[in-house]
Amino acid sequence: MKKVLFLVVPLLLCAIGIAQAGEAKFLQLSVFNPIQMVPEDESIEGIRLDLFYTLNRNVTGFSLSLFGVNAATGDVKGVEWGLGNWAEGFFHGWQSGIFNFTRGRFVGLQSGTINITEGDLTGVQWGLVNWLEGYLHGAQLGAVNISKSECIGANLGIVNYAEGSFRGFQGGIVNSAGEMHGLQLGLVNYTKSLDGLQIGLANYNGNKKPLEFMIFVNWSF
To answer: I want to staple 177 with a disulfide (CB 3.0 to 4.6 A). Which of 38, 53, 154, 166 is the partner?
Structure first.
C-alpha cells in the first residue's frame, strides 16, 4: 500500500500542477511581448493591459493597449481597445482601433479606420475602409465598403463594392454588386443581375431585363 501511495501521490501532484499551469489567468500586464506577466502561449480570462504590444492564446474579457496592439493567436470574446487589434481565431464582441483584423468569424462591432475580417461577419463594420472576405449578415458603414462573398444587410458609404450576391440596400455615390436583390441608391449603380430597383444618375443592369441602362431609375422584378 505504501509503495502504491509513493507512486500515485507524486503523479497526482504532477497532474494538478499541469492543470493549474494550463488554466487561463485573470490579469495580464505587458510592456512589449515577451516582456509581459503571462507568457504568450497562455490564455487570459479577465483583463489585459499593455503599453505597446501583448500576445496571448485565447482571450475573454477586456483588453486595452495604450500605445500599441492587442493580439491573440486563438479566439477572443469581449472588448479590445488599442491602436491595433489582431485576432487569429474568431472574435465575439467589440474591436476598436485604427487597425482591426480578425482572421476567423466575427460577431459584433468592428470599428476603426481600417477594419478587415477574413471570415464571416454577423454585425457591423464601421470605419473609413471596411473589408470582408466572408459572408455578411449586418452592415458595413464607411467611406469604402468591400465584401467578397454573399451579403444580407446594408452598405452605406461613398463606394460600396459587393463581389457576390447582395440582398438588401446599398447607398452611396458608387454602388456595385455581382447580383443585386433589393435597392441601390446612388449617383452610379451597377450590377450584373438585378432583382429590385436602382435609383441614380446612371443605372446599369447586366441581365438587360427589361433594360440594360437607364438614367434616374432602372428596375427588374
So the answer is: 166
In angstroms, the CA 201 to CA 81 distance is: 41
Q: Among residues 96, 100, 144, 140, which one has the least CA distance to residue 122?
A: 140
Produce one character per residue of 172-188: b if its CB has 16 or more CB atoms within 10 Å, e if not.
Answer: bebbbbbbbbbbbebeb
116 contacts: CB under 8 Å, gap ≥ 6: 100, 101, 102, 131, 132
pLDDT tens track, the chain, 221 positions: 444 334 333 433 333 333 345 589 999 999 999 999 999 999 999 999 999 999 999 999 999 999 999 999 999 999 999 999 999 999 999 999 999 999 999 999 999 999 999 999 999 999 999 999 999 999 999 999 999 999 999 999 999 999 999 999 999 999 999 999 999 999 999 999 999 999 999 999 999 889 999 999 999 99
Strands (E), 118-212: 121-132, 136-147, 151-156, 159-171, 174-185, 188-191, 194-205
